[in-house]
Design a protein that fits this description.
Layout lengths: L2 H7 L20 H22 L3 H23 L2 H17 L10 H23 L29 H19 L3 H11 L5 H7 L4 H26 L1
Helix pairs in contact: 1-3, 1-4, 2-3, 3-4, 3-5, 4-5, 6-9, 7-9, 8-9
Length: 234
C-alpha cells in the first residue's frame, strides 16, 4: 500500500466527540441542496483524479469523511478500538476498489456502505461468540451515555439524578444489543446518522420497504425491552 494512503488511513487515533448526535431530518434549504450538489461534484473530481493515480486526491477524500466514518463505526459497534479498526479497514478497502467506482451514487453513500458491511460482519462475529459489550465505550475508554445529548447541565449537582440517567443509558445500550445485527444497523443509520430509508436500503443492498420493515421491528423490540426494564425497576 502506498505510503501516502497509509498516512491517511493509519492516522494517529482519530477521536470523535462523545455522546450521540441525532441529526435533524428537516427538509434541506435550497442553499443546503446547492452546497451538497457542489460537494458531490468536487468529490467526483477527486475520485477521477485518484483513479488516475493521484494519491493526494484520495487523501483529500479521506479528510472529508474521516470523522463521519469513525462516528458511524463507533455508534454501530460501541467500542473505540473496534471502531478504529473498521475506520482504517474501510478506507483501505475504498482505496483498493476505487477503480470500480462508477459514479452511480455519491462517495458518501459508497463509503458508508463499506463501513456498514464491515460493522455488520463484526456484529455477527460478536453474536456468534456471545461477546457483545454490555456497555458502550467512548473515545477515552469511558462509558458512553446514549442520553448525553439531552443531559441536564445541572445533573452533576444531583448525584442521584446523574446515576439514574447513566443507568438509563446502560439500559438503552443493553436493549440495542438484543437486536439482530441488521436491525441495529438500520436503527443506527436512521436515528443516529439521520439517513433516509432509501439510502439505507441502498447501503444494505435491499429495498426501501425492507429497510422500513426492519426499522419497525427494531423499534418495536426496543420499546418492549425498555418497557420490561421499567417494570423491573418499579
Amino acid at each position: 500500500m502506498p505510503s501516502a494512503i497509509e498516512s491517511s488511513t493509519a492516522m494517529p487515533k482519530a477521536t470523535v466527540q462523545t455522546g450521540v448526535r441525532v441529526r435533524n431530518n428537516s427538509r434541506l434549504t435550497p442553499a443546503q441542496l446547492e452546497a451538497r450538489a457542489q460537494q458531490r461534484e468536487e468529490d467526483d473530481d477527486l475520485i477521477r483524479e485518484a483513479q488516475n493515480g493521484d494519491r493526494a486526491a484520495f487523501d483529500a477524500l479521506v479528510r472529508r469523511y474521516d470523522q463521519a466514518v469513525l462516528r458511524l463505526a463507533l455508534h454501530m459497534l460501541g467500542n473505540e478500538q473496534d471502531a478504529q479498526d473498521i475506520h482504517q479497514e474501510a478506507f483501505l478497502k475504498a482505496y483498493r476498489h476505487l477503480g470500480n467506482f462508477r459514479f452511480e451514487c455519491s462517495f458518501y453513500t459508497w463509503v458508508y456502505r463499506i463501513v456498514t458491511n464491515l460493522c455488520l460482519d463484526q456484529l455477527r462475529r460478536r453474536k456468534s461468540r456471545r461477546e457483545d459489550p454490555a456497555t458502550i465505550v467512548d473515545a477515552q475508554g469511558d462509558e458512553m451515555d446514549l442520553l448525553s445529548n439531552v443531559s441536564d447541565t445541572r445533573a452533576m449537582a444531583n448525584p442521584a439524578r446523574e446515576l439514574d440517567r447513566k443507568q438509563m443509558g446502560q439500559r438503552i445500550a443493553e436493549a440495542l444489543d438484543k437486536l439482530t445485527p441488521r436491525e441495529r444497523t438500520v436503527f443506527e443509520l436512521k436515528h443516529y446518522q439521520g439517513l433516509k430509508l432509501r439510502t439505507i436500503g441502498e447501503m444494505l443492498s435491499t429495498t426501501e420497504e425492507t429497510a422500513k420493515n426492519t426499522l419497525f421491528r427494531a423499534t418495536r423490540k426496543l420499546r418492549a425491552s425498555l418497557a420490561e426494564l421499567r417494570e423491573v425497576k418499579t
